[in-house]
Amino acid sequence: MKLLRVFLLLSAMMVFVACSNESEDYSYTGALPIPQNLAYELIKQQLGDKQLKEVDIYVSIDMLSAKTKVVSMGSEDIISPDCDSWLFFVDEMPLIANWGHPCKYIFVDKTGNVFAYERTMFPTEPSMEKMKLLNRADVWDGYDEK
């Protein structure tokens, strides 16, 4: 009976500590929170048919707090997952002069759950200045930024 109580107590504690698990893609089982480089590896799996040479990928410098509002141009705001997470922004058509083209907002929460949202506009909060570039598309080769 004492063992059953301990089991129930531990189970209840795990429910309170764990983040909401809306995603079926749980593939990180290491120490919490997930480091940025491992979260990036999960992101690369989410790209599907897109090749790394075709997209720009940015990541938030710091993890976002739970339920942070991510504001984008065009009123396509997103609320981050129920626990701290990395925000990855994937520009699927770099060098397109005007926005309104496919992009993705991908969150990797501190437990390794991945949440992807397809949008058409870039983030304004956190701004691109608060993100670092992890992958630059090959289309930039030879591009004169002037």
Automatic annotation (TrEMBL):
Residues 1-20 form the signal peptide. Keywords: Signal. This is Lipoprotein.
